[in-house]
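Input record, target 12 of the design panel.
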């Protein structure tokens, strides 16, 4: 039995946080690193702080990266300035500050651009994945619908078999009397219209989800949850009067033969058996009326 396989694609993107949350996380991360390098008097703190800059830039993008860069620059000015006054530097430390500033800017732009492009690529992939999923859903639906009558086909019936298990259902087979004669006398276009109108009538009466084109001019209805009286009322609305179909020289009457059974589709009476019984009763009905195919 065919089954539908659902493919769930999960893209590794960090959930979007408000900018203030990104900035708060960045400040906490850089503050912790500054506490570590200050507390342990690390001689080259930029080696530690640059790691924080890269991490914040890669996770938070430009907002986090810029804040991390400013914090790192501030501590660099503090660390290399004479007397830690942020503004007075010897020649050697001036060069160190300049090198640190260049490194901050380059790392910031490079990592943030990588993140921006990665996020843009993931958004594009996600959009394409969603579009593909929607196309697959539509293709799956189209594969289960008869193009002429717009009701379900045999493939849909096979896929829906498990859904009827252990349910009380009415199962009906119905076909168009003298359908071959309609095609022979009025053309296959008229026959197609007869099929399409029959599908529309059944769908309007029993619900599209319960109706199937079984083959040729045969239709199957599997209606759960109806009492005998409710089902027979619906059946009469379909078959009590012929369906009038306009043709070139007037109109023709579309008349149906049918047969149905009622019961629980379970192991004791599988749905396939119920369909066969309904089919036999339809042909018995047709034989009683003396109508042909």
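The sequence produced for target 12 reads:
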């Amino acid at each position: 039995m065919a089954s539908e396989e659902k493919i769930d694609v999960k893209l590794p993107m960090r959930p979007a946080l408000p900018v203030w949350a990104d900035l708060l996380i960045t400040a906490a991360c850089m503050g912790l690193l500054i506490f570590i390098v200050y507390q342990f008097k690390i001689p080259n703190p930029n080696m530690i702080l640059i790691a924080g800059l890269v991490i914040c830039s890669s996770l938070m993008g430009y907002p986090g990266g810029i804040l991390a860069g400013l914090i790192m620059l501030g501590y660099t000015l503090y660390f290399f300035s004479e007397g830690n006054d942020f503004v007075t530097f010897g020649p050697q430390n001036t060069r160190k500050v300049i090198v640190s500033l260049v490194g901050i800017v380059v790392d910031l732009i490079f990592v943030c651009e990588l993140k921006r492009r990665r996020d843009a690529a993931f958004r594009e992939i996600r959009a394409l994945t969603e579009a593909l999923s929607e196309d697959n859903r539509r293709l799956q639906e189209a594969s289960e619908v008869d193009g002429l009558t717009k009701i379900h086909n045999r493939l849909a019936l096979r896929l829906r078999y498990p859904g009827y298990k252990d349910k009380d259902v009415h199962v009906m087979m119905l076909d168009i009397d003298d359908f071959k004669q309609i095609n022979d006398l009025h053309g296959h276009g008229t026959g197609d219209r007869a099929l399409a109108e029959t599908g529309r009538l059944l769908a309007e009466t029993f619900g599209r989800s319960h109706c199937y084109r079984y083959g040729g001019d045969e239709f199957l209805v599997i209606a759960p949850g109806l009492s005998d009286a409710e089902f027979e009322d619906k059946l009469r609305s379909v078959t009590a009067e012929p369906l009038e179909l306009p043709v070139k020289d007037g109109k023709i009457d579309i008349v149906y033969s049918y047969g149905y059974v009622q019961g629980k589709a379970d192991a004791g009476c599988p749905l396939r058996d119920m369909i066969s019984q309904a089919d036999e009763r339809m042909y018995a009905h047709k034989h009683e009326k003396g109508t042909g195919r």
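The first strand starts at residue 168 and ends at 176.
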